[in-house]
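<tokenise_the_fold>
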Amino acid sequence: MNMSSQESLWRVRALIRYSSLAQNLRVIRKFSGSAQVYAVVKADAYGHGIEHIAKYACDVDGLAVATIEEGIILRKVVSENTPVMVLSEFNHPSQIQLFQQHHLELVVHKISQLEWLESNPLTDKSKQLAGWIKFDTGMGRLGLSVDEADSLVRRFLSLQHFHHRGIMSHLASADEPDHAQNHHQFTLFGKLNQYQIPIMSLCNSAGLLTIGTQSQTMVRPGILLYGISPLNANPKLQELSPVMIFQSKLIDIKTLKKGESVGYGATWKATKTSRIGIVSCGYADGYPRLAGNRGWVMINGKPAAIIGRISMDTMAVDISNHEKVVDGEIVELWGDDVLVTQVAEWAETIPYELLCQVGNRVPRVALD
């Protein structure tokens, strides 16, 4: 099959722009100053494709994932010199060998994990084991008690044949800059500096923008990497560029008479003779069902309202005012002209969820 044939056959795709990834990393570096940057690429790099994003995320000091499996995937495309932190999957002492074998950094967030490391001496001293200790400063999720930091840090530092990477915590309300919890967590975390462990890490993307890198030597941006601000209408972030452009096509065009309906439940009826387009994308591809009768897509630089309910594989749009639109026309679902943050508002959710839900049957296509 020649390339032109392949080009004509796709029905929905996610274009991934690596030039935008590089641009967003420059923005992150500007906010990070001298602090190290661990790029968060968990959940298949927020739906963008973990192997490709990691390969092109060159200007980072490390990568962070959620699971050992994700870490092993990364090791196929990044060298052993690139630190890979596994944020939460250290659930059994038998996993210690996997962390060691694949040069993955573990995170100690409960006492039993310390006990596993103390009672399971490393058998292969040639492969170093590295890790972090995590404290709960207010997230109320994973992390050791700050009240017991003296004894816990001492035990952590006494682990033999272990590379002690640093101390970390996680912010709960950084996307609300004026939230009192931010100051409380920042103050608690600052007290952990007394242990003089070189790398201190608190901030996610929102924290990097609202708190900055004070008292920290490493930050862990996620959503910023993909060109999306975690804060609403932040003028500082106009340089960000969306990495994913989610596209589909019109696969049919038809005319409805006044009073005729479209879609399940007949939730939209034509108030006049209307020209509608059928788009070959639905909730099975990752487009949110709640956006039906609320949102719009972009066709040839002009918005077209979504009408009726989103189906599993298709949706309908009103193209009555798009005189030159023809069958096969490309439709932007989100990207440069339709921001994923706007689609998330229609769907009463957050852009993180939408990106992660782009379906496996949607090919990721590399640009530049």
Q: What stands out?
A: The chain has two domains: 33-229, 244-367. The chain has twelve helices and 19 strands. Residues 18-32 form the longest helix (15 residues). The two ends are 23 Å apart (CA to CA).
